[in-house]
Specification:
This protein is mostly helical. 65% of the residues lie in helices and 0% in strands.
Length: 162
Amino acid sequence: MKMFELKPLSPEAIPAALEKANRYRLLNEPGAAESICLDILAVEPANQEALKTIVLAMSDRFSKDYAVGDTHYNEYLARLTDDYERAYYTGIIYKRRAKATLAKGGLQAYELFAQAMEWFEKAEAIRPAGNDDAILMWNGCARIVDRNRLRPHEVSATDTLE
């Protein structure tokens, strides 16, 4: 089977490609957005907007039952250069995974929301002046946990048997 060699983007096309990736995310086409971001990152590996967009596109897939390995988005999160953004987007990942888990029955959704809230608190502590996005996300998690009466998952003896 013949493998195709991908064609590189020209650096001048990157701003329009970023807009297109965001448009595909809004159209609920995370695979297309992810593909575009991969093309951008092949040309500009440190492009912060492409890194944030690919993380969001990957997390868009949680609710669609696509398998998204933690190592994939963690690799892109690690390449974000701003500590605030790294903490904020890590919180977003946990929140989206928690919401997808809750929609599928909720086992361990509480723990995922709690992790998201911890990351949002880290982001809040180092947020730029006037940026309360992490607070908005923390409050959103708290409301979901309260509304759904989520509690920590208790491990029983049968859960630990192999």
